[in-house]
Amino acid sequence: MANRLRKKDSGGTIMKGATQDNESLRKLKNHLRVLFQFDSAELDFGIYRIMNYKRKEIENFIENDLIRAIEKEFEKYKVQNQKELLEKIEEKRKEIRKLEKELGEKILKNGEIEEKFKDKPFAKEYTELKKRIEEIDITENIQSQVFNDLYNFFSRYYEDGDFISKRRYSSKQHKYAIPYSGEEVKLYWANFDQYYIKTGEIFKDYEFKCKGWKFVFRTVLADVEAGNVKGNRRYFLLSSDNPVKISNKICLIKFEYRPLTEKDLKQYPVKTKEGKTKTTGITQDELNLILKDKILDSITSVESKAILNETEGEKTILEKHLYKYTRKITSDFFIHKNLREFLERELDYFIKTEVLDIESLDTEKERYFDRHITRAKVVKNIGKRIIEFLSQIEDFQKMLWEKKKFVLKTDYVITIDRIPEEFYPEILKNKEQLREWTELGFGKVKTKKDLNGKKFPVDTKYFSEEFKERLLEKLSEKGNLDDLIDGILIKSENWQALNLILEKYKEKVQCIYIDPPFNTGNDEFIYKDKYQHSSWLSMMYDRLNLAKRILSNKGTIYVHIDYNENMRLRLLLDEIFGKDNFLNEVIYSYRIQGIAQKFWARKHQTIFYYKKSDSYLFNNEKERVYYEKPFIDTKVEEKQFKLSSKERNQLKKFIDEGRILPDKYKDLLFNKYYSDVFVRDVWDCDYTKPFISGSKEYLKFTTQKSEGLLKRIISSASNMNDYILDFMLGSGTTIAVAHKLRRKWIGIEMGEHFSEFYYDIKGEKIGIMGRMKKVLYGDGIGISNEVDWQGGGFFKYHYLEQYEDTLHNIEFPNEEKGQKVLQLFDKDNEVNEYVMKYMLKFETEGSPSLLNLNSFENPFEYKLKIISSGKGEELVNVDLVETFNYLLGLKINGYRFLNKNSRKYVIVFGERDNRRTAIIWRPTKDIDLKKDKEIIDKVLNGFNPDEIFINGDSFVKGYKPIESEFKNLAGV
Question: What per-residue string of b and e applies to 517-544 under the rule 16 or more CB within 10 Å gives b?
């Protein structure tokens, strides 16, 4: 029998042809193509680039590797079951032979039970075992069950492009449940274990069939915004390169998705009712009328053209489908933080509850139990193979997201009074700088005399690199450079910026104020404000977690919100900072325009106020409160005052300007009394004097908060020279007020209003940068008069690489080498699983965004192709020096810039973890290391560093290579 069984094994348990024709398997494979986004357009940007590179490999996995794995799994468990059954049969035979001796009769004859013994229990057990071994072959029905199980599992947790962390149940139970660890109150949202990346467009092929023809609309070029910024409007236009391709009754029509150019306006002339050509306010529907004609003109097939021209209702077939295709579909994009762990955990649960139905198993015979066990084991092992392949791509995306981003550009703004006079001649000759001063309203400057007594802000972006280096060296002589700098302004998506500066500012920020998107659904702001609640929570959760790590133990955080998300935000802040660290819920009452007709008019927002620890700082403040009659309080002694003549005139002026109180309160107000009392938690910006600024502020930024509001928060939560952080900067009020209050500050903003699309009271475009330059000059608005602000200052600003840039710079220099490595391993070998896990990272090693170490040969010429600037693709130099400073968490004391032996040296002096640190950068090609050591020793003489970092090789004793440290700290 054993020989016969072994011979039968050699044929395999699954016929390949039968497997490939299995309808359940086809269903599973088609779903896997959805999981791997095979329906996405073949675009050369973002994650589409990676999917396109790996599509052939993924297709091979689905069509070939998966089949081999399934066959091997069935075969493995068949052989295992055979072995176990043969062992049981042999044990039963021994038991029967023992009985034969006791009874003195023959029970087994030619391996079969004699008739007279067939009803005995031991005989029935023996016969059952023999039947089971005859039925050991896995039937096609069991195969189908396995494929259906896998399809059901992966369908269950996949939704609109992402794996959702909601435990799904079968129809006989609840729809889904949430992870729960016994908390009294649990805040949970669908994407809680995923990074929210952005809300953006989805590009997929659009297909329809008609009268034997298949028509395909495909986006072949897409120019999308970086991060969550609303840039110029994009449109679907016909591709400029062979827009229509016809073959075998398939008509492929190619499109581009991008902003309109002047050339486009001529090629797609949309007319007004008066017959004039529109240049603004053009809709996609208007363009579709022109697109339709251009498509038909490009189609050479008479038959397909006739089909598209047929009318269905009021529109032609082409118009109907073109309308559907150009309805821009947007989605929230996520990256799972640990897809493998999540899916393997849920697969375990799925098998126990859906594959192994314990109630059914109790009623089945033992031989059927073996088949269910085999089914469960195959589902588990094949499921894990698919999960491994899925998580390889997801983990790679996660690595790209978490990678510390490069600083692309660093410049400085410093007022003229802080610059040594030796630089004045160069400044006065710089036409761009002089023109900016005029545009900002500072007047014309021609001679040195025009600079006297003024605090003109000088922006180093208008000057040469050599000028900037000399200036930094000179300023370093006056003191520690980081101590001289008042603030840092960063243009970046905020999670990426916080992630980069974390090491340097960990537990150093005293107060954080943010005014995040309220999730109103209006989408009328310059940033996107139309998230799903779960997307909004994911976005806030990750950013607040980083913010908590940056906040000092004595620090506090204020988060401004309204009714749309305040209940969810409160629970989120409780989870991150701890409910015991909640301090207050401030009601911020603002002036309203008009009166709501169908409900009580909304007149307030909420500011949640949390501490990091019990040692938090709080400077109590007083406010002036007005009363209709004298204020009497036996518990608190407070003086009562009537309005002075000057105050009455000032108040009358504000009323006349319509800035406080409607007209009917004029007479009543003049007779009111007031007292200075400690501030409560209701802040009324209509009536409370601290919110009535001495002069108008920038009023055309829709979501702007007043300087008076930020003054109250910053004054109460910090002292001079403490750091203030706002990573959702908006109009820049937080850093403007922090600067006037002589605090240090960090501001992060990703919108184009970083430098434009922001208006002052005269309607001038000035942006956050322009506002801060006006602050440095000594603006007379907001709280300036109240705090006697006279201007002056020095801040640094950066532009950072963005996630879209990282993806755009992915290359596959080791792809061929990677495929050869794979061929060394057996496709079914466990070692191959390990290799596959790291294959994407191996194949892309050396990509510019993942640290091309060869380019460190000349660190001042390291380049990236940047698309996040909104100006198309730009090749820009990366600031490796400043990037490495942040990676180390270095406090910068100063710089030295040398040119020795026709070679540039940049030396950074600083401190980290109470160690004196020196960093040396220079080109290393054809370097004389002996002379190089002499130069370095000389420049470091007297500094006595505890650690030295140098790029490339060096003869300097005890140095650490920058490259390995950079790669490790950057997370690549």
Answer: bbbeeeeebbbbbbbbebbbbbbbbbbb
